[in-house]
Design brief:
This protein folds into two domains: 269 residues, Aldehyde Dehydrogenase, Chain A, domain 1 (3-Layer(aba) Sandwich); 183 residues, Aldehyde Dehydrogenase, Chain A, domain 2 (3-Layer(aba) Sandwich), CATH 3.40.309.10. Helix 2 crosses helix 6, helix 3 crosses helix 4 and helix 9 packs across helix 10. The strands form five sheets. It has a seven-stranded mixed sheet, sandwiched between helices. A six-stranded mixed sheet has the order 10-9-8-11-12-20, sandwiched between helices. A hairpin with a 6-residue loop joins strand 4 and strand 5. It contains 16 helices and 21 strands. 51% of the residues are buried. 38% of the residues lie in helices and 20% in strands. The chain is of the alpha/beta class. The longest helix has 21 residues. The chain binds NADP nicotinamide-adenine-dinucleotide phosphate and magnesium ion (MG). Magnesium ion binds next to strand 4.
C-alpha cells in the first residue's frame, strides 16, 4: 500500500496533526493508499508558502518569464504523457471508471497543459483610442496574474478536473494551493511528484489533502488567498461563494446540473438512443453535464424507451481494470444515496423500466455497483426529476409541442448543459437559443473540447473553464494610461 504526504513549499510533509486517511478502491472496497490528512494548519502553511512565492521571491514563478514558464509546463506535459499507463491504472483503481476512459482522461490532461503553455504566449490586453481632451494620451491594458489561487476539485475526473485548473492558473503566472477530493487523491499526488521532479520554484504549487470542512473552508475564507476556483456540488459552492466575499476573492464555480436531453419525433431514433446512452451512463453517470432528463416527443416514446432499455440491459458491469462498459460508483455512501433516490422515485409514481438494483454478480459483491437505471412516467415534481442524482439514473418525460419541450427543459434551477435531437436544423437552433444553459449539443451528447469555454448558467456556476476564457479567469486586467506630452499643462490646470 502507498503512503502519501502533502507537498508544501517544495517539501513532502506529514499533516501537522500526524493524522492520515485511507483511500479505497470502489470496485472491491480494499484500501489502496494512506494519505496525510491535512487540516486548517496545513492549509495555512501552504497558503503562506504560495503567498511568499508570489509576492516575495525575486526568482519566483511569475518573474521567470513567460518562455521559461511555458518550457516547464511543456516538460510537465511530456512527463505525464510518458507515465500515461500508470496514471490511468491508478485513476481506475481510485475512482472506478473503465481503464480506457481513464486513459482518455490522462491524454486530455496532457493536451490541456500543452494548450495553456502555448496560450500563455499569445497576445493579451488591448489598446484603445481615447478622448484626447486632456492632451494626447495612450490607453492600453495588460494581463497580470491574480496571486494565490486555491483550487478545489471533485472525484469524478480526479486528475482532469485538477489539471483543468492547475494548468491555466500556472500558465497565467499565479501560485497555487490545490485540494483534491478525499475520495480520489492518488493521481493528484502522482502529478505533484512530476511537478517536484521538474523543479518549479519552491511554493509555486502546493498540495494539501484533507476534508472540505477544514482544508476547503480555510482556503475559501483565508484573507491571503486571492482567488478560489471550485468544481463540485451546488450547496458546497454556495458556501465557498459566501466565504470568498470576506476579502472579495475572485471566484470560479463549476457546479451541478440536471440537464435536459430533448428528442423530437423527426430525429434519427437509433442515433438518439446511442447518444442518450453516452449522455447518462458514461463515467457511471457521474458527470456534471449528464443528460439525466430525457424529454421526448410523445409519439416516439415507446419505441425509444424500449430501445434504450435494451441497450442499458446489455451493458457490462465490472472492475474498471477489465474495461467493462461501466465500473462501480465512487463509494458506499454514494451508492446508498443513488439507491435511495431509486426507491423514492418508485414511491413517487415513476415507472422503473430497467436497472434499479445493486449489482453483486461476477465478483462484484464487495464493490459499489448499480445496474443502469431508466425511469418512465416521471411526474415533474418528483425528486429524481428535480435533484442531481450524479449517477446512472435517467428519467423520461414526454411533450407534445416545441413550446412545451422548451418550458420543461428550463423548469430547473440548474443551467449547465443540454441537447436537442431533430433533423430540422432551424428547429434545433430555435430550441437551443431558448434553453438557459452554458453548453448545448445538437444530435450528439457530451463531446467537450479544450478550445471552447465550459461553464453553467443559474445555479450551475460562475465563470468559464477551458479555452481562452479559461486562461482569462486566472488573470487580472490592468488599465494603463500614458500622457504623451508630459511637459505641457495638465488637464486640471486647463479646466
Ligand atoms: P462536493 O461534495 O461539493 O466536493 C467537491 C470538493 O469540495 C471536494 O474536494 C470536497 O472535499 C470539497 N469540499 C466539501 N465541503 C467543502 C467546504 N465546506 N468548503 C470547501 N470545500 C469543500 O462534490 P463531489 O461530490 O466531490 O462532486 C460531485 C459534484 O461536482 C456534482 O454536483 C457535480 O455536478 C459537480 N461537478 C461539476 C462540474 C462542472 O464542470 N460544472 C464538473 C465535475 C463535477 P472532501 O470531499 O475531500 O471533503
Ligand atoms: Mg477511491
Amino acid at each position: 500500500m502507498h503512503s502519501f504526504k502533502n507537498y508544501i513549499n517544495g517539501e513532502w510533509v506529514d499533516a501537522v496533526s500526524g493524522e492520515t486517511f485511507d483511500v479505497l478502491n470502489p470496485a472491491d472496497g480494499k484500501i489502496i493508499a494512506r494519505c496525510a490528512k491535512g487540516g486548517r494548519d496545513d492549509a495555512k502553511m501552504a497558503v503562506q508558502a504560495a503567498k511568499n512565492a508570489f509576492y516575495n521571491d525575486k526568482n519566483g514563478w511569475r518573474r521567470l518569464g513567460v518562455q521559461t514558464r511555458c518550457d516547464m509546463l511543456y516538460r510537465l506535459a511530456d512527463a505525464l504523457e510518458k507515465e500515461k499507463d500508470s496514471f490511468a491504472r491508478a485513476e481506475t483503481m481510485d475512482n472506478g471508471k473503465p481503464l480506457r476512459e481513464a486513459i482518455g482522461d490522462v491524454e486530455d490532461a496532457v493536451s490541456y497543459i500543452r494548450y495553456y503553455a502555448g496560450a500563455s504566449r499569445m497576445p493579451g490586453g488591448a489598446s484603445y483610442e481615447v478622448n484626447d481632451g486632456f492632451g494626447p494620451m495612450q490607453c492600453f491594458t495588460v494581463k497580470e496574474p491574480i496571486g494565490v489561487c486555491a483550487l478545489i476539485t471533485p472525484w469524478n475526473y480526479p486528475l482532469l478536473m485538477g489539471v483543468q485548473k492547475i494548468a491555466p492558473a500556472l500558465a497565467a503566472g499565479n501560485t497555487i494551493v490545490f485540494k483534491p477530493s478525499s475520495e480520489t487523491p492518488v493521481t493528484s499526488v502522482k502529478f505533484f511528484e512530476l511537478i517536484d521532479k521538474i523543479g518549479f520554484p519552491k511554493g509555486t504549487a502546493n498540495l494539501v489533502m484533507g476534508g472540505g470542512s477544514t482544508v476547503g473552508e480555510e482556503l475559501s475564507s483565508s484573507p491571503d488567498v486571492d482567488m478560489v476556483s471550485f468544481t463540485g456540488s451546488t450547496p458546497v459552492g454556495q458556501g465557498i461563494y459566501k466565504n470568498a466575499a470576506a476579502n472579495v476573492k475572485k471566484i470560479g464555480l463549476e457546479l451541478g446540473g440536471k440537464s435536459p436531453n430533448i428528442i423530437f419525433a423527426d430525429a434519427d431514433i437509433d442515433g438518439a438512443v446511442e447518444w442518450a446512452m453516452v449522455g447518462v451512463f458514461f463515467n457511471q453517470g457521474e458527470v456534471c453535464s449528464a443528460g439525466s432528463r430525457i424529454l421526448i416527443e410523445e409519439s416516439i416514446k415507446d419505441e425509444f424507451t424500449s430501445k434504450l432499455a435494451a441497450r442499458a440491459n446489455a451493458m457490462t458491469i465490472g472492475n474498471g481494470l477489465d474495461n467493462p462498459d461501466m465500473g462501480p460508483l465512487i463509494s458506499k455512501s454514494h451508492m446508498e444515496k443513488v439507491l435511495d433516490y431509486i426507491e423514492t422515485a418508485k414511491k413517487e409514481g415513476c415507472r422503473l423500466v430497467c436497472g434499479g438494483r445493486r449489482y453483486t454478480e461476477n465478483g462484484c459483491g464487495n464493490g459499489y455497483f448499480i445496474t443502469p437505471t431508466v425511469f418512465d412516467n416521471c411526474p415533474p415534481d418528483c425528486r429524481i426529476v428535480r435533484e442531481e442524482v450524479f449517477g446512472l439514473v435517467v428519467t423520461i418525460q414526454t411533450f407534445k409541442t416545441e413550446e412545451e419541450a422548451v418550458k420543461m427543459a428550463n423548469d430547473t434551477e440548474f443551467g449547465l448543459a443540454g441537447a436537442v435531437f431533430t433533423s430540422d436544423g432551424a428547429k434545433a437552433l430555435r430550441v437551443v437559443k431558448e434553453i438557459r444553459a452554458g453548453i448545448m449539443w445538437v444530435n450528439c451528447y457530451n463531446p467537450a473540447f479544450i478550445e471552447a469555454p465550459w461553464g453553467g448558467y443559474r445555479k450551475s456556476g460562475i465563470g468559464r473553464e477551458l479555452g481562452a476564457d479559461g486562461l482569462d479567469e486566472y488573470a487580472e486586467t490592468k488599465q494603463i494610461n500614458i500622457n504623451l506630452s508630459p511637459g505641457e499643462l495638465g488637464w486640471y490646470e486647463k479646466r
